[in-house]
Design a protein that fits this description.
The chain is an all-alpha fold. It has one domain. 72% of the residues lie in helices and 0% in strands.
């Protein structure tokens, strides 16, 4: 790593770069390249993996998922190589996540942040990330609701981060990410309560 104590200006630069990296919308780009409808105008109108699966199938969804996870993973890994401070890693991961939610390149119309958040968690703590992904997979397999899987996984993620890292900055960052995931899923929460939420693979 380059710095044991990272200069403030460099922290700001890394954070801005994290946000810009997160602002690259994998769903929109994949749909354009594959000549699919704009995910902001079809299905759930959310530019994320689940909606791309609805409108474009598994191949497009897998590419979108990989792209979105890398948006959270890569900036934090770069920050880890350049800085010894978990606070810097936390800021960069949150910036990438917020970039996905509110991308400057796409009129601030972003997704719900699940895949990008998972990428950041993996970079913060590989074990915490694997536990979060495992939780998502188990809930999704049992109940077939992507939103419920995300809400459950991210509810437990701060606990996983606290247990695997013991770092307050990373745990606090994870708690903020979880709160934002719940905010972005507020309509899904209402639909789950009302029994109107679409299941994985079902056309909306």
């Amino acid at each position: 790593m380059l710095f044991d104590t990272t200069p403030s200006l460099f922290i700001a630069l890394l954070t801005v770069l994290g946000y810009l990296f997160g602002s690259v919308s994998s769903a929109i780009i994949v749909c354009r390249l594959m000549r699919l409808p704009d995910p902001r105008s079809e299905g759930s109108r959310n530019p994320g993996t689940t909606n791309v699966l609805r409108i474009g199938g598994k191949k497009a969804a897998i590419i979108t998922l990989a792209g979105d996870m890398l948006k959270g993973l890569v900036p934090v890994l770069i920050a880890r190589m350049l800085s010894a401070e978990p606070m810097v890693w936390a800021l960069v991961g949150m910036a990438a996540f917020i970039g996905h939610l509110y991308p400057v390149f796409f009129r601030f119309e972003g997704g719900k942040g699940v895949a990008t958040g998972l990428g950041a968690i993996l970079a913060w703590s590989w074990l915490g990330g694997l536990l979060t992904i495992a939780t998502w997979l188990i809930v999704a397999a049992v109940f077939r609701y992507s939103s419920l899987a995300a809400l459950t996984a991210f509810l437990l993620a701060p606990i996983y981060l606290a247990g695997t890292t013991g770092d307050m900055a990373l745990t606090s960052a994870m708690s903020i990410v979880t709160a934002l995931v719940y905010w972005r899923h507020r309509e899904n929460i209402r639909n789950l309560i009302a029994g109107k939420e679409s299941k994985i693979g079902k056309k909306k």
